[in-house]
Design brief:
It is elongated and about 125 Å long. The chain is an alpha+beta fold. It starts with 6 loop residues before the first helix and ends in an 8-residue tail after the last helix. The strands form five sheets. The chain has a five-stranded antiparallel sheet, with helices on one face. Strands 8-3-14-17-18 form a five-stranded antiparallel sheet. It is built from 22 helices and 18 strands. It has helices at residues 7-25, 30-49, 56-74, 80-94, 101-117, 127-150, 164-188, 263-267, 344-349, 359-371, 375-388, 404-412, 417-430, 478-482, 485-494, 505-526, 530-534, 547-571, 580-594, 605-615, 620-635, 642-651; strands spanning 213-214, 228-234, 245-251, 253-254, 259-260, 281-287, 294-295, 297-298, 308-310, 316-318, 326-332, 392-393, 414-415, 435-442, 445-447, 452-456, 460-468, 472-476. The protein folds into three domains: 3-158, no CATH class; 213-512, no CATH class; 580-651, no CATH class. Helix content is 48%, strand content 12%.
């Protein structure tokens, strides 16, 4: 695959693999990324500077080192991301191990498989462009390798009159010819309502979004992630900004630093549900794959979507993680009173705190408790405390130690939403008021082009809920007391400085408006499943097409498309595939014909030279010289330079023979 297999072809092979592996490289740990890039660099040096291949023992050491780095970085190779990284690393090492056409063809073919694995992690609108680019490069590389192999017996293959653009046009033509049949299979091949197989939960290593626990800094990390979490389409008007609290995981247990869900919250199902007739918000949610088991809804869902449980603390929990784009409908009643009577077990759980933590906070809350007998008054006083004291809503909150609430309230006084929600819930529990922490998303961006609400990962938020007699569980957002703009303008609008160099408001508006393209892609392509396919021919009067009918239509469509495309396939030619030696031979035959000698197609070069020399005795020596050089150029292990054959043709200038 090195220079003996075609210098430019090796570059196309390198480019195909690099593009196929690029998305995976973006998620590789640094050591694994390094061991993947090193062979690419070495092979590029071989092609550019003629470096010699590495000795076998060095290649063996690199292979062993790669396996060690994979295991130490990922822990094991059972996850999807680690398994795909193993494939990428092995293909990269193959680049410095194989120098034959067979090795190059193997690398290109498996690069297509590597490209296909990336659809396990993302199915966004950019993925088809990535796949098309990889496929075009692979087609060009495979076509060049095929030409290279075809000319293998004739020493150095002929030079191709091809530029990068002509090769690109050739690959695009091949891809364009395949698209109609591919589109027919996409639309008509029978879809299953559910996947053929499931993915074991132990292999889910690309989880995104909110976690099943909360500690200082956990939600703050999501603030830099602008990837979409979900989109919501409302039937009717939009809720006001202060109602856009998208409920997710609810945490009951606190160990001094980290909040986690409790057994009762996860396993007890809601016994009293809001009245469906009183639901104010009726909407559908299209959630992106996140490998988590919870769904999101505004307070309070009146019922759970299919295959989902509605827990006693109004979490929407699925049995299986969300592994692909999913859409569900939901209705919410914000006026519902959650738990007007709190069971003793849940009250005890909502007051539990670890011993020996945060003594300063406990002393402060006890002094408040002596001043305020009413729970409502104490809650309001705590919010006033956050509002009046010099607390700051900040993305760069300092790290907190063992007594995290003490350090936050009395020392740093800077934090993100999880700092305020955690501190407030701890303070309420110290005051004897049942409290818990809720995480989810707050706000969103309304896309007027598509009439939907876009919620990104950077909209992740945490708030507290306290239980008060007569009102049940009530939402309290201490972050809003510190920064009211967090509710009105979202987290991005609440910060005084941009997150990074390109974090300008106009850039955000442009990006959010452009999300309509992704949303349409989700609706028309990603969400195209068994139901959409069954309704495909409804306008033609064919209601709910069954699988046999779809197969019959697919067979007919494929046959017609093949008949239409086949003539175009036969006319497709690669760029500049003419042999310069054969071109010179044709010009030689034309000069013989002009001189009055008609060559027989069945004659060999030397046989033709003998006959032509007898016909043109004055040119016999020049004719024999050219035929001999042509034979050597075509069949000798070390052919003469092409320029020698050109000079011999220039020297042959016969005049027309007259008898």
């Amino acid at each position: 695959m090195m220079r003996s297999a075609g210098h430019k072809t090796a570059w196309f092979t390198l480019a195909t693999f690099t593009l196929a592996a690029f998305p995976q490289m973006l998620h590789m740990p640094l050591p694994v990324l390094a061991i993947t890039l090193v062979p690419i660099g070495l092979r590029a040096g071989t092609e550019q500077f003629g470096w010699k291949p590495l000795p076998g023992w060095i290649r063996h050491v690199l292979t062993a080192l790669a396996l060690v780095l994979l295991f130490t970085s990922y822990g094991d190779l059972s996850g999807r991301r680690s398994a795909v990284s193993l494939l990428a690393v092995m293909l990269s090492l193959k680049m410095i191990e194989g120098y034959r056409i067979r090795d190059a063809r193997l690398v290109v073919s498996f690069s297509l498989f590597l490209c296909a694995t990336q659809f396990l992690f993302a199915q966004g609108i950019l993925m088809p462009f990535y796949a098309a680019g990889t496929t075009i490069l692979a087609l060009i590389a495979l076509a060049r390798l095929q030409r290279q192999e075809a000319w293998g017996a004739a020493a150095e293959p002929p030079a191709l009159k091809a530029s990068v653009w002509s090769e690109l046009r050739f690959g695009l033509r091949l891809l364009g010819l395949a698209l109609p049949v591919g589109l027919a299979f996409f639309l008509l091949f029978p879809r299953l309502a559910s996947p053929l197989w499931g993915i074991p939960e132990t292999t889910l290593d690309s989880r995104t979004g909110l976690s099943d626990s909360m500690s200082p800094g956990s939600i703050q990390q999501l603030f830099m992630d602008d990837s979409p979490a979900f989109r919501a389409v409302f039937d009717g008007g939009l809720p006001p900004p202060e109602a856009l609290y998208w409920r997710g995981p609810v945490f009951w247990q606190f160990d001094g630093r980290t909040w986690t869900s409790g057994f009762y919250g996860r396993n007890l199902e809601a016994t009293t549900l809001p009245e469906p007739g009183a639901a104010e918000w009726d909407y559908s949610v299209q959630i992106e794959p996140n490998e988590r088991k919870w769904l999101f809804a505004l307070d309070y869902p009146v019922e759970a979507p299919p295959d989902t449980r509605l827990t006693s603390d109004f979490q929407l929990l699925r049995r299986d993680p969300v592994l692909q784009l999913m859409e569900y409908r939901i209705r919410s009643n914000p006026r519902f009173v959650d738990s007007p009577e709190l069971p003793r077990t849940l009250r005890s759980l909502a007051l539990e705190l670890p011993e020996g933590y945060n003594p300063k906070t406990r002393s402060l809350v006890e002094s408040w408790r002596s001043e305020y007998d009413s729970d409502e008054a104490l809650v309001q006083h705590a919010l006033d405390y956050f509002h009046n004291e010099p607390f700051h809503y900040s993305l760069d909150a300092p790290r907190l130690g063992r007594d995290s609430v003490d350090e936050f309230l009395f020392d740093t006084r800077e934090g993100f939403c999880e700092h305020y929600a955690s501190a407030f819930a701890v303070m309420m529990r110290m005051a004897g008021i049942p409290a818990r922490v809720v995480t989810g998303y707050m706000g969103g961006w309304y896309n007027a082009l598509g009439d939907y609400m876009l919620v990104r990962q950077s909209d992740a938020h945490a708030w507290a809920e306290v239980w008060l007699p007569g009102t049940g569980w009530s939402r309290v957002d201490p972050t809003a007391a510190v920064s009211p703009t967090r509710v009105r303008s979202g987290a991005l609008g609440a910060l005084a400085a941009p997150r990074h160099l390109f974090d300008f408001p106009w850039v955000r508006r442009l990006r959010n408006s452009a999300d309509i393209v992704q949303q349409r892609w989700n609706d028309w392509v990603i969400e195209y499943g068994a139901r959409s396919q069954a309704r495909l021919f409804d306008p033609l009067g064919l209601k709910h097409a069954s699988a046999p009918i779809l197969i019959a239509i697919l067979a007919a469509a494929t046959t017609l498309l093949t008949l239409a495309v086949f003539p175009l396939v036969m006319r497709t030619r690669g760029p500049g595939r003419k042999d310069p030696v054969q071109n010179l031979w044709r010009r030689f035959l034309k000069r013989l014909k002009a001189a009055g000698f008609e060559a027989q197609p069945s004659s060999g070069a030397l046989e033709l030279a003998a006959a032509a020399g007898a016909h043109l005795p004055g040119q016999a020596q020049a004719i024999h010289r050219f035929a001999e050089l042509y034979t050597l150029s075509r069949y000798a292990p070390r052919p003469p330079p092409l320029e020698t054959l050109r000079q011999a043709l220039r020297a042959f200038r016969p005049k027309r023979f007259s008898s």
